[in-house]
Structures are given as C-alpha cells and as structure tokens.
Amino acid sequence: MNPKQRRSIIIYLITGAFIISLAWANFSYTSASTSQNIVPGTVNITDQKFKDTFATVREAEATGAESAQIKDLVDKLNLALNLTDEAEATAILDQVKAEASQLRDAASQASFYKKIFVFVMVPVAALIVTICVHYGLKPHYKNKVEQTMKMKIKEKRDAQDV
Amino acid sequence: MSEDKKRALVVFVSALMIFGMLAYVLVTPWPKEEFFQLYALGETRMAERYYPNNDTNIPVDTPVKWYLGTTNFMGSIQLAIIRAKLGNQTLAPPNETEVTPAPLPILIEFHKVLQNNETWEFPFIWKITNTTEVGNLTYLTLSINGIETQIREVGAEDGYNYRLIFELWTLDEESNDIIFGWKASNERRAAWLQLWFNATR
Fold first, then answer.
1. Exposed end of chain A (fewer CB within 10 Å): N or C?
2. pLDDT at A44 over 80
3. Which of A45, A52, A121 would best serve as a mutation to test chain B binding (most B beta carbons within 10 A)?
C-alpha cells in the first residue's frame, strides 16, 4: 500500500466516523394534512382528564418517542374528542394515557442510552483517528528518514580546484 | 517521549475535542422559532372568491363557504382551538399587542390535536337564516356548519359592517389552561383573522 492509498483510507475512515455520528441526530419531520368537519364531542377540552392525557403524550414526545407512535396517540386523542359516547371517549383517554406513559418511559431510557453511547464513542472515535493518522503518516516519515540516511556527503569544491 | 508519541498525543487530544463538541451538538436540542399559522380561504380553496359573486352583501339564506386552516410550527404536539366570533364596526377586535381576545360571544369552536408541522384545514359553511330589526340595528341568526345560533349581543346599523372573527387558542403547557394565542420562549403571541360582510334581506 503506497502513502497515497493510505491517505485515502484515512480520509474515508474520518468521513465514515463523521457520518455515523451524524446518523444519531434525530431529524424527525412530519407533515400531514387533514380536511374534516368537526362535530363537537362529549369530551370537554377543559377537563382535567383530557389535559392530563394530553400532557402525558407531550412528555412522551419530548423524551424522544418516534413520530409514528406519537401520531397514533394523537389520532386516538382526536377520536376521543369527536366521540359522542362519553364512556367510550373516557376509555380511549385512559388507554392513550397508559400507552403514552409506557412510551415516555421507554423513550426516556432510550434517550439516556443514546447520550451515553454518543459520549462513549467520543474517545473511541478519537483513538481510531489517532491510530489511522499514526499508521498513515508512518511510511511518510519512514521515507523521509530513509532519504536522509541515503544522503551522501559530498565535498564542495571551489571552481579553481577543478 | 519520542516524536511519534508526541504527535499521536496531539492528534488524540485534538480529535477528542472535535468529537466531544460534535457529540454535544448532537445531543443538545436546537432552539427553533415556534409559531402557528392561521388562514382562511374562499370557496375555491384559494385566497379568492370569499363571497358569492364577490359581493360582500350577503342575503338571507345564501350559503357562504370558506376554508379555515392552521399549521402547527411549535415543535411539539399542540391542541389548536379556533373560535369564531361575530363583531361589528364598533366592538373591539382582538388586541395582538396586549394579546387579549375580542370581547365578543363565541359562535362556534373547533378543536383538534395537531402534530408538529401538521396542517388542519376544514370547511366553514355559514348563512344568515334570519334577521331581526330593533330600532336601526339588525341582529342576526346564523347557521354555521349546520348549527344555528341567534346572536343577541351584536347588532349592526342597517346590517352593515359585520365581521366574522376567527381566533386561535391553545392549551398552555405551563399553566395547563386554554389561552388566546400561544407562548413561545416565554413570550405570548396571537393569531386572528376577520372577514367583513353586510347582511341584506
């Protein structure tokens, strides 16, 4: 492997490490459009039960739950808001609250482990880069030393001596 | 310490600092501008043809179709509430500076839980079903999306210069109360719309 190839491998490794670390960033983006006529349901949005359920879903979202799971909970919340059967609406709110709590706990744990992993990866990535740079530059310095060792001492003679 | 070891140490410390900063940036949430968008469209679902024949004089029993929409750019799920109110030329509209709603009766309320970046659009079909004259003031009975409401609190001289006001309300996370507008970075903001019309026989 010549020094040029080694340099390319080092660049690929550094770029790879950068891309892997970027992949951990959660760039979630959802977009949806709805068109519906709202029929007033029995659930009052000022009810403490609705507010508590809504707050739990918000917490689950804030701790980093996946947007697809949040969408599912939001759909159920909207279903409960539009239901005219109070008992059914209350049952859905209870179910949403329970699911949101589970999701929040799971997301919180996952988020914690993600942070730990990211910070543990920092010295590992730094070590990889150091090893790559060390072995990547070794042939270059070896060549330099060899060049120096191969140098011959020549006597510089004046023009009049020749 | 040999030259090799010194160089490796410098590279390791530099890489540690760079990756450390990168890790911090990755796990720290970025502050984003938080806001709602509120809009009203005409019957063609565009910003045109708000009135039948483009005439703001609305006769009794003539249906008017609008589309109301709101988009959540708050970065989290939000409960969006759109309240429709009837006003006239003299009664105060909402105050955006003080963030106070219009002191007018609520005709109808629509609400939906929205995900971040979600747009909610729905038809708002209304018509004047009856007018009542008291002196020179005209009072209206409106049918909105099939729900009839008689408004005794708001009258207009000869039925001129009525306005339908749409306010956006949200459920505030901190106070756990329904508030006019929304809170973004501890600052209150509001969004509202108004569409004028005259009631004719």
1. C
2. no
3. A45
